[in-house]
């Protein structure tokens, strides 16, 4: 069943496949150069560059509306819809801690003050009371606002969503 010709075919198939892969790798290297390669005396430049500020800081947002103005015009009804993103980890009933602490009466409440919930301590470094300004900063980027926080939520990038949510939490402490 296994004769010499079968062995030769297997070895030939393996060598042929290896040759195809080696030729493909050589052709890919010729087509796509990695890094800058000089061709003789000619200098090769990148086709397109993205300008980046030298000081490492991002350019400030132009015409950004202050949070206070957005918060003054916030719609609590829209905030209830935004709370659906929070509901996976937070409850509104007093003392009902889940993955995160209860959000019952959170606006105006001292930071790290819910009994029965183990905080990371990172929040006390940045705020004393959950006023709308601190909530806005935290909800925009929790880990950026309070490095070391246990909250793994990525944040709410839209300032109107944050303002609406905070307005709804302020008017509906217990859901």
TrEMBL record:
It comes from Tropicimonas omnivorans. Keywords: Electron transport, Heme, Iron, Metal-binding, Transport. It comes from the Bacteria. InterPro entries: Cyt_c-like_dom (IPR009056), Cyt_c-like_dom_sf (IPR036909), Cyt_c_1A/1B (IPR002327). Residues 74-173 form the Cytochrome c domain. This is Cytochrome c family protein.
């Amino acid at each position: 069943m296994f004769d010499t010709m079968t062995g030769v075919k297997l070895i030939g198939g393996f060598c042929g496949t290896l040759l195809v892969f080696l030729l493909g790798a050589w052709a890919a290297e010729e087509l796509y150069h990695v890094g800058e390669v000089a061709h003789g005396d000619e200098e090769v430049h990148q086709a397109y560059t993205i300008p980046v500020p030298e000081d490492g800081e991002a350019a400030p947002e132009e015409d950004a509306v202050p949070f206070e103005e957005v918060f003054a015009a916030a719609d609590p009804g829209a905030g209830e819809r935004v709370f659906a993103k929070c509901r996976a980890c937070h409850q509104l009933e007093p003392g009902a801690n889940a993955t995160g602490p209860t959000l019952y009466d959170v606006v105006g409440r001292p930071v790290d003050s819910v009994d029965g919930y183990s905080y990371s301590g990172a929040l006390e470094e940045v705020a004393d009371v959950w006023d709308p300004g601190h909530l806005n900063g935290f909800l925009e980027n929790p880990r950026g606002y309070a490095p070391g926080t246990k909250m793994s939520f990525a944040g709410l990038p839209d300032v109107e969503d944050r303002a609406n949510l905070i307005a709804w939490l302020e008017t509906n402490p217990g859901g």
